[in-house]
């Protein structure tokens, strides 16, 4: 997959402390409010594509649902062709190209904030209705990332993420405490196949039912060693974590993921899988042809009560660094009664984030 080498990305942002004040600048609303804990009301969201009761029960039990069809294959092919051309133009991207890391390109985090087709994608009712039926009616999209895999690329380590502090060492999302106890955390990830995702080109692997217990401690140190890329075998499979070894975060150093409980998720272009980030997941290495690259696009969602990028104004991870001064989360459903996050009301080209 080296032929169409595309830059990849992630992002973050700090809240303010002024009570109930809002200032609008460059299409971004900044505000805050004292922390307030609410209970999610999962059945409040009743869009055309909301999960059925049976699907909700499956999701609660297994931690994922999918694949679900978001775009027809021909439409996805055309959309991806257009997006790929537009990605080269960074004139409105919120992160500098220099943010590119040596293992992955975090400068391409959050391109939904400057490319209309990606802005439209994160607001797609086929996605948002399903997510809102899990998280409740008031939902933010707080990050998007590309996940390319090219011929010869290693698979991704088994991992879970609750705070996303794993590489940066700073929590990137913070759920309010529950009854004085730290919240479990996590985000809903919607991983969309922009190309076919196959056994040969490195499809996702999931381990159903593992989303209620964290096997990893994201506060532990994890060494960045980009020289290890594509050079380490784990249980007979070439794997890594974009220059890191996720095993360093294991709570029990002697524990090993039970791969007999996992399955590979083959997806057609235009399909999505929706899963908790705390679900054990990984990907296979790309053993296919150079032409057959894999491109995934992940959009991450949380309720509006979750703080995004608390107490930080930059992100340093994967050998790169991004400045969050232009960042804003996007309200994709409901209302934001908390005001603890900076909210982007339109993208950097003026495309409005209108709830459908």
UniProtKB/TrEMBL annotation:
InterPro entries the UniProt entry points to: Chlorin_enz, Phytyl_CoA_dOase-like
Gene Ontology molecular function: any one: 2-oxoglutarate-dependent dioxygenase activity
Pfam family name, one: PhyH
Highest rank taxon of the organism: Bacteria
UniProt xrefs under SUPFAM superfamilies: Clavaminate synthase-like
Protein name per the record: Chlorinating enzyme
Gene source species: Actinoalloteichus fjordicus
């Amino acid at each position: 997959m080296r032929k169409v080498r595309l830059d990849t990305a992630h992002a973050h942002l700090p809240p303010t402390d002024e009570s109930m004040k809002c200032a609008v600048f460059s299409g971004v609303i900044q505000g805050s409010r004292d922390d307030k804990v609410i209970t999610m009301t999962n059945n409040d969201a009743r869009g055309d594509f909301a999960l059925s009761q049976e699907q909700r029960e499956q999701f609660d039990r297994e931690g994922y649902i999918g694949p679900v069809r978001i775009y027809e294959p021909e439409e996805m092919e055309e959309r991806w062709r257009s997006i790929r051309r537009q990605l080269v133009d960074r004139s409105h991207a919120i992160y500098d190209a220099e943010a590119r890391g040596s293992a992955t390109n975090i400068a391409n985090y959050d391109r939904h904030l400057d490319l209309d087709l990606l802005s439209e994608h994160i607001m797609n009712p086929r996605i948002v209705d399903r997510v809102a039926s899990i998280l409740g009616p008031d939902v933010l999209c707080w990050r998007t990332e590309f996940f390319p895999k090219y011929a010869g690329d290693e698979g991704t380590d088994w991992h879970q993420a609750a705070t996303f502090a794993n590489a940066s060492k700073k929590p990137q999302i913070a759920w309010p405490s529950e009854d004085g106890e730290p919240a479990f955390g996590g985000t809903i990830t919607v991983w969309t196949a922009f190309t076919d995702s196959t056994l040969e080109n490195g499809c996702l692997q999931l381990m159903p039912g593992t989303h209620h217990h964290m096997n990893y401690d994201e506060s532990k140190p994890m060494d960045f060693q980009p020289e290890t890329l594509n050079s380490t075998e784990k249980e007979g499979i070439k794997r890594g974590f974009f220059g890191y070894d996720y095993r360093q975060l294991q709570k029990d150093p002697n524990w090993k993921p039970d791969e007999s409980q996992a399955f590979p998720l083959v997806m057609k272009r235009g399909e999505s899988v929706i899963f908790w980030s705390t679900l054990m997941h990984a990907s296979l290495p790309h053993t296919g042809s150079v032409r057959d690259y894999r491109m995934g696009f992940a959009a991450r969602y949380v309720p509006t009560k979750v703080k995004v990028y608390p107490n930080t104004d930059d992100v340093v991870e994967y050998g790169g660094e991004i400045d969050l001064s232009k960042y804003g989360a996007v309200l994709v459903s409901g209302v934001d009664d908390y005001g603890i996050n900076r909210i982007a009301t339109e993208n950097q080209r003026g495309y409005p984030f209108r709830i459908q």
